[in-house]
Amino acid sequence: MAAKPLRADAERSVRAILDAAQRVLSENPTASMEQIAEAAGVARTTVHRRFANREALLRAMGLWAWQRIKEAIEAARPMTAPPMVALHQATANVLAVKDSWTFALDNADATDPETEAVRAEVAALRDNAFAGARDAGIFAPDADLAWLARVYIALISESVHGQDEAGDPDVLATRVLDTLLHGFGPRT
């Protein structure tokens, strides 16, 4: 019975470490594990007990961030919500995660099998949502979904890295989808 609270404590300390690492490393990518521990409010030994080394911490940060991206898309209910609603909500959710976890996502280990598996799930969710949007007439019937995905990802990335709307996910999501659907040509 005592193990359950310890597990919750362990989960809280891991989350505190990951959150602190994101903040600290965003400001100083060469920050030490000791600086991360201090920011997390835990002992350096706690960080080392949870993460064997800096690479393990970075790998865990990337995996954590990609899992949040997956949850953000799933929360938009892309398979059951109206396609445009799901696209907007998923985009806003993903922008919020990307804004909070930029360092971790930018530095995620592309060779880590767990992270790659989650990234593949994210891509499948996105591709299914795009196919549903195409089938609903939101995208042209002959839209190249692979190209659409690349442009969408670029728009999201630029929205996060070049924010001028103080990070309001709904405003940025509207801009991303408006650009994706209409570009900059005149509206007819």
Automatic annotation (TrEMBL):
<feature type="DNA-binding region" description="H-T-H motif">
    <location>
        <begin position="32"/>
        <end position="51"/>
    </location>
</feature>
<dbReference type="InterPro" id="IPR050109">
    <property type="entry name" value="HTH-type_TetR-like_transc_reg"/>
</dbReference>
<dbReference type="GO" id="GO:0003700">
    <property type="term" value="F:DNA-binding transcription factor activity"/>
</dbReference>
<feature type="domain" description="HTH tetR-type">
    <location>
        <begin position="11"/>
        <end position="69"/>
    </location>
</feature>
<keyword id="KW-0805">Transcription regulation</keyword>
<keyword id="KW-0238">DNA-binding</keyword>
<keyword id="KW-0804">Transcription</keyword>
<dbReference type="InterPro" id="IPR036271">
    <property type="entry name" value="Tet_transcr_reg_TetR-rel_C_sf"/>
</dbReference>
<dbReference type="InterPro" id="IPR009057">
    <property type="entry name" value="Homeodomain-like_sf"/>
</dbReference>
<dbReference type="GO" id="GO:0000976">
    <property type="term" value="F:transcription cis-regulatory region binding"/>
</dbReference>
<dbReference type="Pfam" id="PF00440">
    <property type="entry name" value="TetR_N"/>
</dbReference>
<protein>
    <submittedName>
        <fullName>AcrR family transcriptional regulator</fullName>
    </submittedName>
</protein>
<dbReference type="InterPro" id="IPR001647">
    <property type="entry name" value="HTH_TetR"/>
</dbReference>
